[in-house]
Request: fold
Amino acid sequence: MPIIMGTAGHIDHGKTTLIKALSGIDCDRLKDEKKRGITIELGFAFLDLPDGQRIGIIDVPGHEKFVKNMVAGAAGIDFVLLTVAADEGIMPQTKEHLEICSLLGITEGLVALTKMDTVDPELLELAQEEVQGYLSASFLSQAPIIPVSAHTGQGIPELTKALQELSAKSRENTSSEIFRLPIDRVFTMRGHGTVITGTLIDGRISVGENIAVYPRERKTKVRGLQVHGQTVETAHAGQRTAMNVAGLEVENLQRGECLAKPGTLFPSTLWDVEISLLSTAPKPLKHRREIHFHHGTQETLARVYLLDRDQLEPGETCLAQVRFPEPMAGIFGDRYVIRAFSPLRTIAGGMILSPMGIKVRRRSQDLDSLQALRTADHVQRVLTHLHRAGKTGLTGPELHVLTAMPEKHLDRTLQDLASKQQIFLFDREEQRYVSRQIIEDLTGDLLEHVRTFHRTNPMKAGISRGMLSTGWGRGLSFKLLHFVIERCLKKKGLVTEKEVLRLPEHSISLASDQSQLKKELLRTYDQAAMQPPNFNTVLETLNVSKKEALGVIDLLIGEGKLVKINDSLYFSTQAVDQVRDLILEHFAAHVELSPTDFKELTGLSRKYSIPLLEYLDKQKITMRVGDVRKLRKGQ
Reply:
């Protein structure tokens, strides 16, 4: 796996000169850098080690005014080469750069004690002791300290050997396999158009592939790739990459944006984070404080919301949420750095727990699941995220970002959890999952809702799916509602008859007067055959109220014994079947049916014929064409 080394150290401590001595490449490319003799922008080089490994090099500026550029460069490195001038020792930017590297999660590196030719052996030994003492409490406490001189070449072979050993150690890094390239430079090259450069921090990309510029998700295509000045077909994680893209102008791109494949990142204005305030921070970090937030090559204003306290003391760590003015794209485990406004310096940093934050109530049990993300293994992290997502659930690509697991590992984990019914795939098209607890809660709520419906509607056979979707299930996605219903049916918690759902034990129970009314209504409509009385007339004849009669009417319709033509006209099912048979017989010999034809067939007056014809149209048996009806296909 390709390795990226970054430099760090105070201004004028010889970072750029040392890189040139190692690689032969001058990283100061700007006229102003040549004129002033200081590094302003990020510089890039590569070094071919004796064992054949090529490491990329990011040279960062040391001046305090350009610390944000240093952070942008340090975001993609595997280990750091800290330079300390033997004639000056530890200086302010030495300290801040080291703090930034620590906050970004860099755990490996070595120290070059530069300008050894400018001091006598005794001072060189004192400088080594000072550096060793200062680094004793840092991640470089065991790092080799190698005196070098870029001018005389002293120590360069020893430094090269140490770089080779450290590079071999760093090749064991794991990857989420999500292609990401944070943009650090954009320019136009004659004959090529727009060129983007950056450190490919994860995944791989090939010529011809479609990509997107996040967070705005503008689509483009890879026209060409270069790695360390050589044209390649594919670039891999850890490589300094120049990419020629199609259809995007330089003015529409900027440092801080990130290239990724479409649909693989999910920008959000709210991130859940673990935050650590440096022990050297001049004062506590207060709840809701505005800060400079650095992630990848991006710098933006943000506001920190502490979740379990009102202020974070120097040297402490806690859970927090960060809110941005515009969406930001990241993945679990990404590191970030926070700089204060006044004085302008690095004060804090940490790790992203979720780049798709969910609003959390301060000092509440909501913190438990967020806390679990800090220490959970991969499986528990998947379960925790699904628990937090609730009824919305999460897709495979979203879980990829939220766990940073290699894709094949994530797929196996999801399949295993689904086979154990710890999670459920309720939407196969979107590959969207929910937790077992959500399904169990929804199942219990649904069964209780149906039970309540039976209690309040004893004369109804059950509740329709349509009523559930517009009532109880109004806040659910259609596919989740369908999944819960089908699971209840499969487990015999519900039964269905003609799209009506009911509990297995439910049966319609009628009072004696209702049973009598049912018999009288059915006898009335059966005897009336194809010329039933108006509904109001039926009510008067039987001396019942509309409310009393409608409940029994609905029951007869549900049992398939009555058919509702309109609000005032009902037919016995037998009569409607007779009408249907008559018109089908007519269409066997004729192409169309006029109102006159219908009257001759049935002997019915306009009072009945028009409502019946309209009913037949609604049932898609016939269709009206002008003044006549035609038989619909399939009848």
In short: The chain is about 35% helix and 30% strand. The CA atoms of residues 25 and 45 lie 6 Å apart. The radius of gyration is 37 Å. Confidence is low (pLDDT under 50) at residues 28-41, 62-67.
